Amino acid sequence: MSAASTPERPAGGRREELLAIAARLFAERGFKNTTVRDIADAAGILSGSLYHHFDSKESMVDELLDTFQRELWKEYDAITGSDLSPRAKLEAVVRASFDAIDHHHSEVAIFQNDASYLIGFERFGYLEERNVRFRRLWTGLLEAGVEAGELRADLDVELVYRFLRDTVWVAVRWYRPGGELSPSQVADQYLTILLEGIAKTDG
Amino acid sequence: MSAASTPERPAGGRREELLAIAARLFAERGFKNTTVRDIADAAGILSGSLYHHFDSKESMVDELLDTFQRELWKEYDAITGSDLSPRAKLEAVVRASFDAIDHHHSEVAIFQNDASYLIGFERFGYLEERNVRFRRLWTGLLEAGVEAGELRADLDVELVYRFLRDTVWVAVRWYRPGGELSPSQVADQYLTILLEGIAKTDG
DNA sequence: GTCTATAGTATGATAGAC
DNA sequence: GTCTATCATACTATAGAC
């Protein structure tokens, strides 16, 4: 989206700094509830100055979501292209997703809270495309897992997919990076529940 | 919240009609993204006329959420007060929740999408209280289930509670009342996944 | 119960000086 | 890269006529 001109420092120049501030505010309050003045205030400048760096408020959230989704899909593609078993791939995708919640918390939160609103604009059509790809990824893995005899055959794949997708991403609402639980620990517990259930089966 | 003056018809008078329209729009677009003009337009009147029925836009969403939560808690209290086993109570609470998604779809959607924003106003402090009650309900049932030997003891109750809570309510994002799946069917599948898992355990 | 008319404010964005 | 100043618009809400 931008040709990194002079990458002198980690997290780049002023533009990336402002983008990070906007990300935090969008994630905390929602896109619509965050004004350009809020962002400027948090950055210690006036709202008009923001427009030296960005075309519009929409451009900011666009860049945030697009960058994040590209990175995430690189990881997903590496997993699906590997030679792991369907069940192992499914576990890897879950773990990669919880890692994303940890490392790109704001972006995930924005996507969770505001995607349904943003998707209404042509500019954000790519979000819909990614949703379709995401659905294919999960249902493909679930079907392959059933076929391989690794997963139960009596469940509605479409429905399991929705539970899976939602449960993974909705964790962004309570997960706090740097808190007590690592993304790996959360993924462990989640995969145990998902795969084995919470009922006591043996004595 | 209001003394039903002349209940002549199902769903009452004009006030309830307008409230239902507002609920639909709030649920579809979000509270902040829905203007009083949108609501008035959908009702075929002008925005100023809405203020004959309601103090403010906030009053509308307040009445919607408060009414809904009162009704929901009546059901929860009946379940917890029953003599069912912990696991059966847990199942009943899950079923009651999916029923709520079916029967009060807009209200659940509004709560899911906008509660975190609304909770910032003192007026909506009761939402925070209900969240606390909700947490106690779930964790209490989970702990009782473990103690009764019905649920696995090796899981983090706090974490299971979050997954449970989120997975149940987030279904409002895809569930459509009157669609192919009944709330009971969704609850069946969900409880199977939650209790038994999706992995194939035996031949 | 709805309309006309409008107040008061907040918002996204722009132009040009520094 | 930021500030000053400001425009145009959209929003919630009100007062009083019908």
TrEMBL record, chains A, B:
The protein's matches in PROSITE patterns, at most eight in alphabetical order, are given as: HTH_TETR_2
Keyword Signal among UniProt keywords = no
Molecular-function annotations in GO: DNA-binding transcription factor activity; transcription cis-regulatory region binding
Per UniProt, residues of the HTH tetR-type domain are 12-72
DNA-binding region positions on the chain: 35-54
- Gene3D superfamilies tied to this protein: Homeodomain-like (1.10.10.60), Tetracycline Repressor, domain 2 (1.10.357.10)
Query: Which key words tag this protein in UniProt?
Result: DNA-binding, Repressor, Transcription, Transcription regulation
One Pfam family for this entry, by name? TetR_C_24
What SUPFAM superfamilies does its record include?
Homeodomain-like, Tetracyclin repressor-like, C-terminal domain
Question: Which protein, by its recorded name, is this?
Answer: TetR/AcrR family transcriptional regulator
The organism encoding this protein is Nocardioides pocheonensis
Q: What is the lineage of its organism?
A: Bacteria, Bacillati, Actinomycetota, Actinomycetes, Propionibacteriales
